[in-house]
Design brief:
243 residues; single chain; mainly alpha; globular; 12 helices
Length: 243
């Protein structure tokens, strides 16, 4: 049931995902499988977080954290708690959890997760208006992604730097970083981020009063988002017929 829940989650069918996770949780408890119970509690927390039910998300993630003995999984739960608090607008708590997750990632040499938590910390600082700190974190994250050869994350951190410089009103650097991010996202076929970067490029061109280019990029972004939704709809139909 856990795998089926993940499939529903990936298709943005979150209520169905929750039903599957709840059933998987019951089974894990019946068989006293505490490790699997913790994994499912984490999935429940993430799903409630996507739906905006912050209190439920925190409750499940804290339970998952209590059960987890594996340092990598503890780090993931800590980072997920950071994200929940970030979306709740509680920057101080978000930073606390992200820093704990970062410490664990460094302790176990989890370079990919280290880069991710640095990137998320950068976003919190940018949201707080501390753009110089955000840039510092995003540059560290970018260095790690390049070092381990994770192109998708390279694009994400480049895009974050573009947003940092957009907030600083440095449109030239913002444009440079976002164009690099767009090129790599297209290379690795990351359609969602391709659409996001096109949207930001549209915002930059709008700031520069280059209206034609702004409209072109925004239309391209909207087209890709519509294509992604159509693809998800097709996958939902296939999943329903397979059950």
């Amino acid at each position: 049931m856990g795998r089926l829940g993940l499939a529903y989650h990936d298709l943005a069918k979150f209520n169905q995902a929750l039903e599957c996770y709840e059933e998987a949780l019951t089974i894990s408890r019946e068989f006293s499988n505490h490790e699997y119970e913790g994994v499912i509690l984490g999935y429940l927390g993430l799903t409630y977080g996507v739906l905006g039910f912050w209190d439920q998300a925190i409750k499940y993630l804290e339970k998952a954290l209590t059960i987890a003995s594996d340092l990598r999984r503890r780090g993931l739960h800590l980072g997920d708690l950071g994200t929940i608090y970030y979306h709740r607008g509680e920057a101080e708590s978000a930073i606390k959890y992200y820093e704990q997750a970062l410490t664990l990632a460094r302790e176990i040499s989890g370079r990919r997760n280290e880069g991710s938590w640095l990137g998320y910390l950068g976003r919190v600082y940018r949201h707080n208006g501390q753009v110089e700190e955000a840039i510092e974190y995003h540059l560290q994250a970018l260095d790690i992604a390049r070092d381990i050869g994770h192109k998708r994350n390279v694009a994400i951190h480049l895009g974050d730097l573009g947003q940092d410089y957009f907030q600083k009103k440095n449109m030239e650097l913002a444009l440079d970083y976002l164009e690099q991010a767009l090129e790599i996202s297209r290379e690795v076929w990351d359609r969602r981020h391709e659409a996001i970067w096109l949207g930001w490029l549209g915002a930059i061109y709008k700031e520069q009063d280059r209206r034609e280019l702004a409209e072109q990029k925004l239309r391209q972004s909207l087209t890709i988002f519509k294509e992604i939704e159509m693809e998800l709809s097709g996958k939902r139909i296939k999943l329903r017929s397979a059950i």
